[in-house]
Amino acid sequence: MAFVLANNYRGLRAGVTAAVVVAVAIAVERLLRKESLQPALGGLFGVAIAAGISWYTGSAKDYFLIGIWASLAGAVVFLASVLVRRPLAGVLWNSVTGKGGAWRADRRSRRYYDIATLTLAAIFAARFAVQQYLYESDEVGSLGFAKIIMGYPLLAVGLLVVAWAARLSDKRLKAAGARSTGRA
After folding, report:
1. How many C-beta atoms lie closer than 10 Å to residue 97's C-beta?
2. DSSP of 29-66
3. Which of the chain's ends, N or C, has fewer CB atoms near its CB within 10 Å?
4. H/E element holding 134?
């Protein structure tokens, strides 16, 4: 957002500077709060690479290249995980929550996670399609707007679908566990 605003009002140099300054400020704030620096440093690294590419080419639109191609990679990876019958939404959710792999044995649970994973794949594919079109059309302002709008708001929708899948899967697995132990 810092890059988009500063670039629109003051040009490429201001956009690059604003993006880097904000990324450094976030890292410093996390350091002062004694929070984990890993996310902030990862963000700083990403901003530095994107800013460096943009600065090197002299084109503001190139700031978005990594994100555009990362969206395509995300779409491919999420889709491939469904095709190999290991829907990434289920794998990630259940590993993060420590629930293990029992969901894989339940056909309907896999289907729920397939839907969630395909939703995330569609989100990544939509980001790629829209942003690549705007990139090719040299619509830097619209590209920045699309990057913001298609970022966290769409990810939130995807995460809601993952939460829906997890909830339904958990209900099925609990019911199956109660049936197998004779409790109903």
Report:
1. 10
2. HHHHTT--SHHHHHHHHHHHHHHHHHHHHT-GGGGGHH
3. C
4. helix 107-136
- Per-residue DSSP letter, 100: T
Give residues with Cβ within 8 angstroms of 67, minimum separation 6: 50, 127, 131, 147
HSE-up of residue 180 (Cα within 13 Å, Cβ side): 6
81-93 pLDDT, tens digit each:
999 999 999 999 9
End-to-end distance of the chain based on CA atoms, in angstroms?
Answer: 52
Q: Give the pLDDT of residue 35.
A: 82
- pTM of this structure: 0.83
Q: Is the pLDDT confidence value at 184 over 50?
A: no
CA distance 143 to 147: 6
DSSP 99: -
Q: How far apart are CA 42 and CA 97, in angstroms?
A: 23
Neighbours of 55 (CB within 10 A): 18
Which of these, 76, 61, 160, lies nearest to 124 by C-alpha position? Answer: 76
Looking at residues 130-147, what average pLDDT do you find? 93
Mean pLDDT score of the chain: 90
Closest by CA to 163, choosing from 105, 119, 107, is 119
79 against 31, higher pLDDT: 79
Task: List the structure tokens of 13.
Answer: 């140099």
